[in-house]
Each structure stands twice: as C-alpha cells, then as structure tokens.
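Check my protein:
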Amino acid sequence: MKLVTAVIKPFKLDDVREALSEIGIQGITVTEVKGFGRQKGHTELYRGAEYVVDFLPKVKLEIAIDDGMVEQVIEAITVTANTGKIGDGKIFVSPLEQVIRIRTGETGSDAI
C-alpha cells in the first residue's frame, strides 16, 4: 500500500478529483495549505499599499491506494493539475504500513 500526497493549485481540485474518480479512486482527503517553492511568492497591491505574499494558497490531497494503482494515480494528477507554469505542485509517494477502517475493523487493502 502507498500514500500519495499531492500539493496542487486550488483551482485544479475539481478537475483532479474527477480524474481520480474516473480511474476508480473512491476516497481522498483534501486540506487547504499554504507554502512556497521555486515560485517564491509575489507582491499584491491592496488599498494603495504593496504587500509581499510569501506563502501561496495550495491544496493538499492525500490518497491511500494499493501498490498497483500508483502509476495510474500519478498519471491522473500530473496530467490534470499541469498548467505548464511555475507552482503547479508536487507529488510524494510514501509506503503505507497499515490501514484500519474504524467502523468495521478491516485492515490492510480491505480498509482502503
């Protein structure tokens, strides 16, 4: 089992969710986050004053999947979240040791 964590631009969330649903992903966790990478941030003008925005709004997706689905999930996120501009995001894949469904007590792949 793997945990795929993707950080993407917020306006791409619905497109990515639909792409993941089409390949059979039944559940994702979404968190609104802020951060920066090479994009660094930008300046904004508000009521005549200029402000530096260091942390940009992003959306973090967490998806627990079987090992066989990793490449499909990565492909779906990469293709759908890509705008071709800096700040499109990152995808991290981590091993997932154990999953337990609280309601039924199912473990492992059955709990996903």
Strands lie at 2-8, 29-35, 42-46, 49-53, 56-65, 89-95.
